[in-house]
Structures are given as C-alpha cells and as structure tokens.
Amino acid sequence: METILVVNAGSSSLKFQVFAISGSQDLDCLVRGQIDGVGMRPRLRAAAGDGAALIDKAFESNEIPDLEAAIFEAGAWLRETQKVDLVAVGHRVVHGGPDFVNPVRVDRDIIARLRRYISLAPLHQPHNLAPMRALLERRPGLPQVACFDTSFHRGHGALADHYALPLRFYEEGVRRYGFHGLSYEYVAERLRQIAPAVANGRVIVAHLGSGASMCAIAGGRSVESTLGFTALDGLPMGTRPGQIDPGVVLYLIMEKGMSPGAVQDMLYRECGLKGLSGVSNDVRELEASADPKAVFALDYFAYRVGLNAGMLAAAMGGLDGFVFTAGIGENSPTMRARIVQRLAWLGITLDAEANRERRTVISASESRVPVYVVPTNEELMIARHTLETLSKQDAFCSTKEKTAD
Questions:
Q1: Is 26 annotated in the active site?
Q2: Which of 142, 133, 78, 143 is nearest to 108 (CA)?
Q3: 328 Cβ contact list (under 8 Å, min separation 6)
Q4: Residue 214's closest CA among 313, 148, 284, 337?
Q5: Mean pLDDT across the chain, nearest whole number?
Q6: Are strands 321-325 and 202-208 parallel, antiparallel or unpaired?
Q7: Pairing relation of β-strands 144-148 and 104-105?
Q8: 187 in helix, strand or coil?
Q9: pLDDT digits (tens, 9 = 90+) for 87-111
Q10: What pTM, to 2 d.p., does this model score?
C-alpha cells in the first residue's frame, strides 16, 4: 500500500503520521506517533489510526541523539513492523518568508533558501529543516514536500500586510506573515461541513496551544491574523510574550545591557505564561495550581484573547462564528469559559454543559454568535498538499516528456 509520511519536527521531538493513498487519492491515517526526549530520554510511541497502541519504547540518549537519528528510527520501525511503502514525505515548515506561497518539492536549493528564515522562527525553523536535510542525503530519490504555516495568510490585503515602516523594508520581506496557517486551513474546510452558512461568513478561529494565535476568516479566506513577522506577536503563549512595545526590546538592550541574542532567548523561552506565573508554561499545570500568579497568568491569557477578538471582528466588520481549536482550545473547558466571558459584549453566551462535555457547539441557543470546538488536523492538510504538489509535478513532467517525443 502506497503511503505518505507527514513529519512535524520540534526542538526535541518528532511527530509523525502515515496516510494511506487509496485509488481515489483519499487519505486514511494508518499510524500516528512521536519520538519525545530526543538526545535526552528518547521514547517512541505510536498508535494505529483507530487509536490502538502499537509501540511504547524507551531508548538510551545516545541511540537517538538528534532529529536526524529520530527520523531514521521512526522510518525503520515503520518499514519493519508496519510494512509501509513510502512514496513521499510531507514536512511542516513554520516560515516560508516572502518567496514561498505554495507547498514546494524539497531540494538542496530550497533548504538553503529556507535557512534564511531561521532567525525569524528560531524555535521551529532549524528543526523543521533537519529531517528533510537528512532524508535528502540518505534517500535522495524519495520525494519530499515542504508545506508552510504562512501560506494560508498570503492573500491578505496590503493594509493587513504592511507595517508602518519605510517601504524598502517591505520589499526586503519585513511584513506581517501570520502563522498556524495549516491549522486554520483545515478548520476552515471542516467548518464548511459542520456549519456551511457560518463558514461562508465572518469567523474568528482561536488556535490556542503552547503557540497561540487567532485568525479572522471571511468566506473561508484569511483576512487578518494576530501573528506577524515572527511567532512572537499577538497573544501571550507558553513561553513567548505576544504583543509587546518595541521600546521594551530597546530598553533591554540599551539600558539593561542585554545582548540581542540574550533578548531573543528570553523572548522565546522565558516569557508568556511561564514568565507571568513563575510556575509553568502548561495551562494544565496552571489550572491545577493554587498559586495566585498562576491564576493571574490564566486571566491575562483570556484577557488578551478577548482584546484580539475585538480587533479581528473589526477587521471583518462583524462576526458570525467563533471557533476554538488546538491543545488548549480543544481540551480546556475552563479556559474556554474564561474567554467566552470576555466575549459577552458580542452577544456570545456559553452553554456550560455543552462546554464541559466538549460538544462541537458550546454556545447557548440564545447566543447571537455560535461558538464551536473543532479539533485541528495539520498533518492531514500536509498530506493533502504533498499529494497534490507531486501530482501536479508528475503531470507537468509527463507533458514535457510527450512534447519532447
């Protein structure tokens, strides 16, 4: 059976899914898994598409010292035990910069060009590129496709796309890109099945996880996002501050004597919920804590979501639906309740029982704006884009061959 492997690589983890390609080019998830603790306490866990456990195995640190070793360990296990026949690999890449609007087949030149954006996404970009570089060296004949979190937002109008900087910087690529696009694209498609009338209207989708953002989607297309040039903007996140006065950064460098590298490290790793609470960057731990600073961090998060909802509703001239997705959005009824309280001015009312039971619709019947919980599936979007990209390329190559003949 021909399959596509989807890879989502982080700093110390490698998530993967395997999709089977049917005759009609539908995609069915066969395996989903991850290798955590890469280089420290590696652990491979995987389950079948129906949730049945397949493996839970720990390794010594030197057995899987880096992401390159992780991708080959996962691949070996898939070949030996699941008998998968890989025809392609799709990768999540956080930043596509100004050059990449659509998914693209990976080669050495593509990787070199994507390395330019490492400084714009230091928590993600180098790790996104590591597995594709390793596969290109070891299995050069295996097609790989890079799929970008920025692509879904590239249709933004000029007003949403620009910063109020000299125009030469925009031409160099300093612009508002937006991220989590693969998630938003999936949710927009899924909403068409759940509530087509709402999906054709004005919707705010809140992708709330360790990385968090919100997106204004009108008629199924992104029109505004809380994230901009980098993944530091917008909402507070697990370890990132969200929106911040640029003068704070200047103060830290000029008055506190911090180096740019030290400021970057602090902004990406020591701020957000972790910095505010001093307890944890994990909402589950904060919700279980009695520490007043943990409560404050949760209230701050909900407050900023509410503020940004107003901005996004203004960008669309109104609101027809609100969607929660991603780790916090899908799994924390208490955080959803905190946020909906902040949205009461929009006429939104929560159905407490529906919220506790994690139903798809969690708003009350009298709510002027319906509220949904829609689990995201970025991996499926990557698999679809990978298949589509290679199919177009194959058709193009076939046409060229026939012309040459």
A1: no
A2: 133
A3: 208, 209, 212, 283, 335
A4: 313
A5: 93
A6: parallel
A7: antiparallel
A8: helix
A9: 999 999 999 999 999 999 999 999 9
A10: 0.91
